[in-house]
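Quick check before the chapter quiz. The format below is the same one you will see on the exam, so make sure you can read both the input and the output lines.
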Amino acid sequence: MKTRRHFLQSSTSLIALPALESLGFRRFASAATPVTPPKRLVFLGFGWGITTETWFPDIKQPGVDYTLPEGLKPLARHKADFSIVQGLWNKHSNEGHAGSTYWLTGANRYAEPGQNSHNSISADQVAAAQLGLHTRFASIQLNGSENAESSGHGPGLSMAWSVSGKPVAGEKGPLAAYHRLFSKDTTPIEQQKAMLAQKRSVLDTVLENAKAMQRGLGKTDTAKLDEYFQGIRDIETRLAKDEQWIGVPQPKAPLAEPSSSLAGREEIKIMYDIILAAIQTDSTRVLTYRQPVSTLLTSIGIKVAPHDMSHYHSTLGEKLEASKQRDLTQSDLLAGLIDKLKTTKEADGTRLFDHVALAYGSNLRTEHSLDNCPTLLTGGGAGIKLGHNIVTPKDTPLCNAWLTLLHGIGVNVERHGDSSGVLKEIVA
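Here is the expected output.
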């Protein structure tokens, strides 16, 4: 008879298994360059919002003939190649310190009785299920090297959430991201195969024990066990990915190994280069980056605490100026990334920019405001309208934008989160 103690012992083995991702995937993505460049999806998220009065264009100037606001001035050279979408929100989100926890999911955190932190699958993971089939990494999750909560991001291990609404781990800082993508695995192939076989054996034992406990469980316990089974399926998928890439060397890094001491502005700049490198080598086609804000402020000489900065309405002055300077710096960094997306060529001679769908923004607008989420969309990958100030009806679901991007890159899901349909205003 399987005892509860026996089951928990096996559960411990299962909980440890996700660390096996360090084995790496086994296929050299550039070995078979596609005739038509693949679609890529990138989400860049930040906490503590923006300066409402100087980041959003005037809603009375919809379309292409709008005046670029102060906070977006560094993006002036790209004005025809990005769109600002106003009026979007996640109606269920009521956590004023969570800039990214529900940003890509649109989940109702109270959907599960007795829980106060329910989440659902994020848009990047929906895309990864399809776009990640032929790359070493189905998706890559990147984080700042600082504490996420100090940057106003809220709970989570990255901006990504699994199909069962569980947090997906991310790489902390540029150095960890670099090694994840480009460090060589010197473990002999036969040893790698043996290690994978051992992990599969442990997983099989855990699965048998879990199934033995199914009979006679109540509704709540059955739901928990179903969630457990989903975790097992996720691990099985990762193990299959590991097996697929055994013996295939990782690509040569197109950039030097970053310093471990980078922080703030320079950290974000290098992380953007790593994102570009990940796409160039076709190591992955789906990326998220939960950006640092606290160290960004420090790196540009701002002494105001990031949370205090978001409350600039109360005192204006120093807090307001800090908020504006933060916007300018972030916009300048984004402009630099767009520069490189435009100048980097695909194998067929087209611009990388034309095959990337990139979303930049936050679940927070400013202070603790969760309406009118700052949303900037760029890249030609999803075929959306660019160069526009798009004003949607008040309280349009943010997930409508994610659904539109998913459809644009060829992931034709019926809905996402609380979406009510595609965002017709941005469909070209």
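If your answer matched, good. The first helix runs from residue 4 to 16.
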